[in-house]
Amino acid sequence: MIRIEGLTKSYGNALALRGVSFQVPRGQVVGFLGPNGAGKSTTMKILSGFVTPTSGTAHINGIDVVEDSVVSRRLIGYLPENNPLYEEMMVLDYLEFAADVRGVPRIRRKERIRSAVERCGLGSVLGKDIQQLSKGYRQRVGIAQAILHEPDLLILDEPTSGLDPNQIVEIRNLIRDLGREKTVLLSTHILSEVQSTCSRVLIISDGRVVADDSPEQLSTAQGGTVTVVLASRSGAALEPGQVRTVLEAVPGVTRVEPGEAEGSGTLGFRLRYGQEDIRRALFEASVRHDLCLLEVKRQHVSLEETFRKLTGGEAANPETAPRAA
């Protein structure tokens, strides 16, 4: 559905995109992440036809967005971050106007509006002016106008920005529902939203794609910690230095730190590891050295920490906001 190759964009001397390339197949919900100024909005503006690239190509369903801009725009439903709406219009009047602008055939217009209203939960506010609506309902109106013409691709820029927790859940569920039928490119700073709605994550930093994987793989690829509590199988007292030496020799372990024990005769440690799951090797080492594993708990680096590491923030720390496995 989306094919971008070698995309660059300059604003004077400032280079916003530096050779961005990626593809998105039909029917995928993709989280498009990056810090402010990374190039997310520029990429989405190029896809939606608002901005032309300096070099490179962008295609939507095989159609070049520069050479066939009008045709490619018909395939897109776009919700910009600021969600521009005509606030003095009633919701129904605005949707009829949007359907007209989108070229929805008059014979199908009533049915398309009914479908969008039903999917976005706008039935109770159709007769209200948009300026009377809460932020959550305004976002719903913005999404409704984006799907009126039944586009193949939805581009949503910060769709839950400024919403309260209940509204976020409502919009998140709506996006998840739309993702069952359409390709969705979702830009957001709320990483929990990405984990719950997206099957794939693209992270852009300084105009380049720095990561492309599932949320789960991005977290596990950065390693984490395994906390263990051990005792002697024979009941003999454990010597901390000797046990530490055994743990440091386990393949994949990068660091061993003291941890909490469970009582007399037990020792606790926290093992840092990289990409390799160390639990099998840990069990085998324990058996060889007559140790009993009373507790083993693995914690991945969170998606937030992975994002910070890949975009130039603080290095990933598996003890910050961990996710137990």
Automatic annotation (TrEMBL):
SUPFAM superfamilies, per database record: P-loop containing nucleoside triphosphate hydrolases
PROSITE patterns noted in UniProt: ABC_TRANSPORTER_2 (PS50893)
Statement: the UniProt record of this protein carries the keyword Nucleotide-binding: yes
One Pfam family this sequence matches: ABC_tran
Gene Ontology MF terms: ATP binding; ATP hydrolysis activity
Occurrences of domain ABC transporter (ranges): 2-231
Top-level taxon of the source organism: Bacteria
Record keywords, A-Z: ATP-binding, Nucleotide-binding, Transport
UniProt similarity note: Belongs to the ABC transporter superfamily.
Protein name, UniProt field: ABC-2 type transport system ATP-binding protein
